[in-house]
Design a protein that fits this description.
Helices cover 40% and strands 21% of the residues. It is α/β, with parallel strands linked by helices. The protein folds into 2 domains: 11-253 and 468-481, Aldehyde Dehydrogenase, Chain A, domain 1, CATH 3.40.605; 258-440, Aldehyde Dehydrogenase, Chain A, domain 2, CATH 3.40.309.10. Residues 17-481 form the Aldehyde dehydrogenase domain.
């Protein structure tokens, strides 16, 4: 396929999908085959400016749009996403690599936020205090703040954009989105459906690019808020740069999630849950489970955990029965391999080596099979760095208190879990653990959209998380109004009485 015959990913500016005039392009590559699927542009400064200007112009009218009108657009949007679920999942699998089942889950979790946005009439409510003084009322308005921006990662190219722009737009703002340049195709298809649902020109705009595009969104005076999901390194940069420019910022970043397995846990259910959470989506999720702490006698479950991992099938995501697809790129494959090698050299026991698996028909794929280390300690690279691959580190502890201490000393705080049959142990765990999201007999405790995503510590910068009640606060400005209204007829009567008395 020649460069001229490869499809190009468009920009979305003022309701139109336009061809970029840039000279800088990146290839979108199927990670299972290395097939080039499309070319994505790194937008020029003028194109980024045009997208932001379009959003700023559209805000003047969109902010005045009736809340019921906004809600009905998202009712239509969720219907369109449901109707196109198989197509969206197939596109996502081709460019990102995850299995079709995982891809449908990716879209579905974003769809749940779209459904939540359709209920904006019940979410964007102010407060009223009647007669706080003689004839005086005080009430609040939750008003949109303006042009908002989102920067999203490669690992959930449907879900995370749908975390961002539906809630921002439903609350009356306009939006400029910069999806990952590694897999933007499903995001663009979602944008097409959003326009079909009735989102007006300029309300949603999409640009593509690298650091220059990120910095432009952090710096531009028209942008009032920035939402980010991605690595800790980039997220810290975004938070610092955008905050210094006076913007609201929420950054959901890296993680090192742990699960504690107590000896009284249900063995079969626990082992199945651990295998899925550690190796599903090829470990490429911020809520993956890369560390398990076996407490007391549960350390004897290690051989069975290894056997469970061996049963997972590695193949292209489009193939039926696949459990673990490829990782996103050659660079990711090299980094994961290097970290596995570091674990060996630093003294961990490699119980299951997933390097260089043979995948017939997909010999060029970026595959790592489930990999499992035991004897991991807190000073090893495989413990301290986010591997973002199908690699599980197994540690042991003599007591739950010792395990809790290990977790609380780790700087990250995205998610954690405990597996136990004891209500008392689970309650003490949820009270004593210093992590934002806690699972009890659930390995990946991502909340449904009526609640907020509440990662903490080094996994999060900014006070308010994505979706749920917190994101309504993030995308709105609270305006407090104190009012007194005089009864003109009563005033006239009082004046006449005064005159007659004189």
């Amino acid at each position: 396929m020649t460069a001229s015959s490869i499809p190009t990913v468009k920009l979305l500016i003022n309701g139109e999908f336009v061809e970029s005039k840039t000279s800088e392009w990146r290839e979108v590559v199927n990670p299972a085959t290395q097939e080039v699927l499309a070319r994505v542009p790194f937008a020029t400064a003028d194109e980024i400016e045009a997208a932001i200007a379009s959003a700023a112009a559209a805000f003047k009218t969109w902010r005045k749009t009736a809340i019921g009108t906004r809600a009905r657009i998202f009712l239509k949007y969720q219907q369109l996403i449901r109707e196109h679920m198989p197509e969206l999942a197939a596109t996502l699998t081709a460019e990102q690599g995850k299995t079709l089942a995982d891809a449908e889950g990716d879209v579905f979790r974003g769809l749940e936020v779209v459904e939540h946005a359709a209920g904006i009439g019940n979410l964007q409510l102010g407060e009223l205090a009647n007669n706080v003084a003689g004839g005086v009322d005080t009430y609040t308005l939750l008003q949109p703040i303006g042009v908002c921006a989102g920067i999203t990662p490669f690992n959930f190219p449907a879900m995370i954009p749908l975390w961002m722009f539906p809630m921002a737009i439903a609350t009356g703002n306009t939006f400029v989105l910069k999806p990952s340049e590694q897999d933007p195709m499903v995001t663009m298809r979602l944008a097409e459906l959003a326009l079909e649902a009735g989102i007006p020109a300029g309300v949603l705009n999409i640009i593509h690019g690298g650091p220059d595009a990120v910095n432009a969104l952090c710096d531009h005076k028209e942008i009032k808020a920035v939402s980010f999901v991605g690595s800790t390194h980039v997220g810290t940069h975004v938070y610092n740069r955008a905050s210094l420019n006076g913007k609201r910022v929420q950054c959901m970043m890296g993680a090192k999630n742990h699960a504690i397995i107590m000896p009284d846990a249900n063995k079969e259910q626990t082992l199945n849950a651990i295998a899925g959470a550690a190796f599903g989506a090829a470990g490429q999720r911020c809520m993956a489970l890369p560390v398990v702490i076996l407490v007391g006698e549960s350390k004897n479950w290690l051989p069975e955990l290894v056997e469970r991992a061996k049963t997972l099938r590695v193949n292209a995501g489009c193939e039926p029965g696949t459990d673990v697809g490829p990782v996103i790129s050659r660079g990711a494959l090299a980094r994961i391999t290097d970290l596995i090698e570091s674990g060996v050299s630093e003294g961990a026991t490699l119980e299951l080596d997933g390097r260089n698996p043979q995948v017939p028909g997909y010999e060029n794929g970026n595959f790592v099979a489930p990999t499992l280390f035991s004897g991991v300690t807190t000073d090893m690279r495989i413990y301290n760095e986010e591997i973002f691959g199908p690699v599980l580190c197994v540690m042991t502890a003599d007591s739950m208190d010792e395990a809790i201490d290990i977790i609380n000393r780790n700087p990250n705080g995205n998610g954690t879990a405990i597996f136990t049959r004891s209500g008392a142990a689970a309650r003490r765990f949820q009270e004593d653990i210093d992590v934002g999201q806690v699972g009890i007999n659930l390995p990946i405790p991502v909340p449904v959209p009526i609640f907020s995503f509440t990662g903490s510590r080094a996994s999060k910068l900014g006070d308010l998380g994505p979706y749920g009640k917190q994101v309504v606060q993030f995308y709105t400005q609270t305006k407090t109004v104190t009012a007194r209204w005089f009864d003109e007829d009563a005033e006239a009567g009082a004046l006449n009485t005064t005159i007659s008395l004189k």
